[in-house]
Structures are given as structure tokens and as C-alpha cells.
Design brief:
alpha+beta, three-stranded antiparallel beta sheet, 3 strands
Amino acid sequence: MKFKFCSDGDCPLWALAALHALGSLPAPIFRTLLHHVVEEQPDDGIMEILKDTSLSSRDECARAAAVLRWTLKQAHRCGCSGVQLARDLLVLGVPRAHASALADAAETGREAYETNIKNNGFMINKLTDISAAPGPEGTVDTVKLTIQSDEVFTGEQKMAELIVDKSQVKILLEDLKKALKRMEEFDNCI
């Protein structure tokens, strides 16, 4: 079958099995687990939530968190509304209360996801600083470029130091100016 939250494809077997396993949880425990996962709280809390259930092993807890994160991420990526997600999950055999909770979570997180995509969608790293200094002693006509960036999705800060020939710096600068001009043209079209 085809499901909107699976890019109009079939649901992967691992996700189907994990969703089926989660179906055995009472609705209040499922909602607590989902809230914990959505709030991105430490994974140790998942074991505490599931301690008195059939999903109390470390592997089962990890599988439960993974399938919830995956389902919500897929719903957002595929533009799947909460109503459609609930329908798809019901067809897959997920209990109505669980499907409804996942649909609500998807709708609640949609605005934040879309804002993040609009701001960072085409960005891998966000440039935070760049500096240039003369190349190291012993090199001729070189420049030492220090580039600092933030990884958009992880927030990790990175620094790279490059030794570049001065002629390449001029070419790089010209290319960046062309790219800026093109981006401004695109911006004016929108």
C-alpha cells in the first residue's frame, strides 16, 4: 500500500513492527512516551516510562523512540497533515488513540519544522566568521583563511584553516560575488 507519510510508498517493515509493538501500550503511557520523545528529553527517561511494559528492554526502548521520531519527521518531510497521518496509521493497524496522539504531535510540531526549513533548508553549515592572515612562514604568495561555522542541524561549531594561493583567493572572491549577484536576482523574482 501507499502511505503519504512514507513518501507515497510502503511503510518499512522495521517501522511497521515497531508501530505494532507500540500499539500494545495503554494510551496514557503512549502519550507520555510521545511527549518525552517530542520534547527531546534524555533517552534514559524512556526506559523509566516503559519499565512496567513488554517494551522495557534497552533495545525496545530505543526502537520505540526511533519509530516515533521517524514517523513525525516523515510526516513533516512529506507534507502529510495530521488528519492524513492518522488515516494512514489506522490503516496500518495502529490503535485510534495512538494514531490521534501522533497526528496531534505532527500538527503541533509542523510550524517549527517549516520555519526551520525556510531558514536553514538549503544550508549545511552556517558561516559564523572568516578571517584572513598572511600565509605561514616559508610559503610564497599564500593566505591563511580561517573559517568558523555552525552545523545547522547539530549546532556543533567547526573551524577550518586553509592555506590558499593569493591568485585562488581572487578567483574565489569573484565567484562569491557572482553567486551573490545570482542570489539577489532570485530574491527579486520571488
